[in-house]
Amino acid sequence: MPNLFDPITLGNVTFANRLWISPMCQYQAVNGVVGEWHHAHIGALATGGAGAIVMEATGVVPEGRISIACPGLWNQEQVEALKPIVAFAHSQGVKMGIQLAHAGRKASTMQPWADHKIATEEEGGWEAVSASPLTFHGLSQPRELTVDEIGELVAAFGQAAARAVSAGFDFVELHAAHGYLMHQFLSPLSNLRSDSYGGDFAGRTRFIKEVVGSIRANVPAGFPLTVRISATDWAENGWDIEQSVALAKELKALGVDLIDVSSGGTVHDAKIPIGPAYQTPFAERIKNEVGIAVSTVGYIETPQLAQSIVAEGKADVVMIARAALRNPRFPLLAATELEANVTWPKPIALGKPRPTK
Ligand SMILES: Cc1cc2nc3c(=O)[nH]c(=O)nc-3n(C[C@H](O)[C@H](O)[C@H](O)COP(=O)(O)O)c2cc1C
User: Which residue of the set 180, 197, 278, 299 is catalytic?
Assistant: First the structure.
């Protein structure tokens, strides 16, 4: 079994290690364009020793953003703004991914720290759309997408993937988790459609499969594609691990390289047994039953826990989010603690902890 700081190859890309930064919304873009905040934020993470950074949920169309301050990849200005951030990460030997997203019925919000949640039209908000006109807790009523609009979104995901390639990204992640649009189609709790995009498993998974096909058709051969799913809604009659395993099999056949296994997001008050590595059993099951690479995420906050997950073959990659917000150099310290061989960037090497033995 490999160790946490051993390399991993997906498609044509080899990542220096298996401790990656999970996507995290920053709510700092203007008209979907990233700026100084992202230079500093991604810059700090890029000097922190991770094998890869997955940039946050990024709208493939303006209405696909979660908030009015989320980034987008629907125009060239957005591509140009991302290029130097990606180039800096590359200068540090870090691979860069970007999470392509559509928020669906969870879209058109203010920044989470604003005094109210839903953005009005004057504030830059828009009409939310979804698989079905079902409102998510406290958000606005979405409009049901027409079949033509679904087709346009399938194309938009492909075009955004092509822009990600031109911005220099090494891979893309499709966001199909956390109750956002792709997941809204997957879950029987949020998809009540009676046309070919709803109903049985084949209908509810049709949209994501078309999107994966569209992305694959717009990136070079060997360009890694990962998909983040919620393995379960943690709710009766919802999306569950059995359906996730079945979906992962089909995604593997469509050329997806890794399933990034998260959970939840469809039901606002679902009872979730949160604790260290609580989502890892789902990743392990998908890895074993599908034979595809998986990443795991969720309360993995010590180097020892991350190392044991990889060394015991439960997941191929460990993603960290909040631990890296607290300390963007978490992977460097983890490697030092695990006595793994990583090179600290020269300007910060004097910060390396003194050996205890
Ligand atoms: C500030 C913040 C923003 C997040 N934004 C995203 C996002 O854009 N896309 C996503 O898939 N998950 C997002 N997440 C979820 C994380 O990627 C991660 O799955 C979750 O925080 C659990 O990992 P952790 O216990 O290491 O924090 C976000 C989490 C935080 C704390």
Answer: 180
Contact 53, 38 (CB under 8 A): no
pLDDT tens per residue, range 30-61: 999 999 999 999 999 999 999 999 999 999 99
**Residue 357: predicted pLDDT:** 67
The CATH architecture of the domain made up of 8-351 is: Alpha-Beta Barrel (3.20)
- Specify the ligand 1 atom closest to the Cα of 22: 17
Helices (H) and strands (E) in the chain, counts: 11, 12
- Rg for the chain, CA atoms, rounded: 19
Model confidence pLDDT, tens digit, residues 68-125 = 999 999 999 999 999 999 999 999 999 999 999 999 999 999 999 999 999 999 999 9
Nearest to 315 by CA among 334, 331, 300, 333: 300
Cα of 295 from ligand 1 centre, angstroms: 14
Ligand 1 pocket test target in 19, 20, 21, 25 with most atoms within 8 Å of CB:
25
Domain boundaries, the chain: 8-351
Which of 239, 229, 330 is closest to 279 using CA atoms?
229
More confident residue, 357 or 355: 355
Atom 14 (ligand 1) nearest CA = 24
Ligand 1: distance of its center to the CA of 298 in Å? Answer: 8
**pLDDT tens digits along 313-341:** 999 999 999 999 999 999 999 999 999 98
Residue type, 251: L
Whole-number pLDDT of residue 19: 98
Four-residue CA torsion sign, 43, 283, 5, 215: negative
Q: What Cα–Cα distance (Å) separates residue 125 from each residue in 121, 122, 156? A: 4, 7, 20
Distance 210 CA to ligand 1 centre (A): 26
CB-based contacts of 276, cutoff 8 Å, min separation 6: 299, 300, 301, 305
In terms of pTM, does the model score above 0.85? yes
As a whole number of angstroms, the distance between CA 72 and CA 154 comes to 16
- Using the CB atoms, write b or e for 256-279: b if 16+ within 10 Å: bbbbbbbbbbbbeebeeeeeebeb
